[in-house]
Fold these 3 entries.
Entry 1:
Amino acid sequence: MHGNASNSSDPRRPDKEHRYRPPVPTTQAAPGEDLTPDFMNILGMIFSMCGLMMRLKWCAWVALYCSCISFANSRVNDDTKQILSSFMLSISAVVMSYLQNPQPMSPPWASVLQ
């Protein structure tokens, strides 16, 4: 019943079919894993320490910005203690930099122009 007549009208070519294989990831992260929260968390801690140690207000504000990005991009199963500690460290860097010098922040390039 299914002779050559039905096969000749079939446009599919079984010899041209290839099974799909997903591409091999080149990074060392698991496929579908976003490393943005981890990078922002590390950057936030680095800028927080620079803001605290060198009394740079702009470093403290960048640290707070990085911590907010890390918190916003984190997943439910991430380590909340790490994100919370980075966030609190960046807030303390902002507070301490303004307690030491309550003057408004001047941009870093303003001292070069004077």
Entry 2:
Amino acid sequence: MKTPFEGAGLHFVTRLDVLRDLTANAGMTTLWSLRNYRLLFSASAISNLGDGVSALAFPWLATLITRDPMLIAMVAFATRLPWLLFSIPAGVWTDRMDRRRLMVQADLVRMLLTFGVVAVILSAPEFPVARAELYIAAISVLAFLLGSAEVLRDNAAQTALPAVVSADQLEQANGQLWSIEQIMGSFVGPPLAGLLIATAVPAPFVLDAASFALAAGLVWCMAIAPRLNSKRRSWLIEAREGITWLRWHRIILQLAIMLGLMNTVSLMTLTVLILYSQEILGLGAAGHGLLLTAGAAGGVAGGLLCPNIAARLGRRASLLIALALLGAALAVIWIATSVWLVAVALFIEMFAALLWNVVTVSYRQRLIPDELLGRVNSLYRFFGWGMMPFGALIGGAIVSLVEPTVGRESALRLPYLLGAGGMGAIWLYAWQQLRL
């Protein structure tokens, strides 16, 4: 963080005092005195570097195989489908099992699956066009399995955080974790992926696998007191307890459904972004990676500033502002004619997403009882993330269906116009119905 320059004669010790005061006000000093938090933070940083690399590498790999937007959308669909299929079972497992061990096992599985992607690439270095469907199917299966492991890992990590920090530290901890995820996952990862792909197509996936292994080791070193589990009962009974709790807490159910609609819009636009970047903006792999860093910068700023914004404005006002900014960002991308304008829109979009996340995740972690946290979190993500794969398919289908009528460029822009309208409708609902 840079402080304002106040004169050439400012003493070094004064700058240190200012920096110490800023970090203390942000909660950094207290949080960083917690060993478990340091390990969890470091593991998140490393695993999200790998995620950021693969976030560019997977769709770029798909475009090397085919230019068909529906086939490219299938990879995104397969990646997100596990959130629909496995969110509820993952919640039961999270509340039954040692959450630390579950995170370690999930990361090790992701490491092995990522090496599987490397094997597919090496088996066909030039990807014959005649067999595009076969290779897309193989990549999609591996993406589905990776997404399944991610469901378990992410649900366990978010559920474990209240056992790592105190309740009054949740906003700061979530803000810092979201910030480092953005720094590594979107600010560092995509440009690095662009450079690695230019060197060798398998290279980013090798780095991704190594990041999962290192993250697993860091989480293994955490020391979290074992939870006192009640007698294990039927899976359906345990799942029903989470469903009953969520049904009687209308606000959290509202937020979950709103998040599902928002993520549908987000995946609809994100799926076509790779083609938008290549064909409208004329960017290569490295350029696209740099473009994604604009969104990461918004995420970093959001992680640092949004806890204070939420405290100052209140939860409801913060969420309404986030929704308005999300819609505005998509509208800008719809009409944008320059890379810089798209970069600004991505910055605003990610800042708004972080404002939404900091408010809603902390609210949820504080309100849900620990013995139900895994199950209710997973149900929340069932609604909030389970609709994402359909957003990916919708994005690919829109482009494929309207392209013969309006042309390729207009077809690639249309999801952003529809997305802006969708965010506007969600904002109107929140303004009328959401009461925090």
Entry 3:
Amino acid sequence: MRYIRYAILAILAVLLISVSLANRGLVELRLVPEAVSELIGYNQVVSLPLFVVVLGGVAVGLIIGFIWEWLREHKHRRVASVKAREVNKLEREVTRLKGKQAEGKDEILAILDEAV
């Protein structure tokens, strides 16, 4: 299974490298359209290779998606945390009650009750 994963990662790497080499041309990225930049007097232009723009867009999309899912699943993690604390509390209570139940008994019988 490990070799299949490495093969898939190698194929993906070759594809990304070939796309990057095929799209090395420079493109201009503008913060705002030209007409708006003339009105406000602010014109920010950056020239980057096309593959950087495409792969950067994919990376930013993945990061936004991961953050979105993390925030969306917050309530589920909170409920799981509350349930885990409740389970720990109940386990401590069961242990305490078993200890009380075995106070007046013989040690051997108490050990046998704990095993069950």
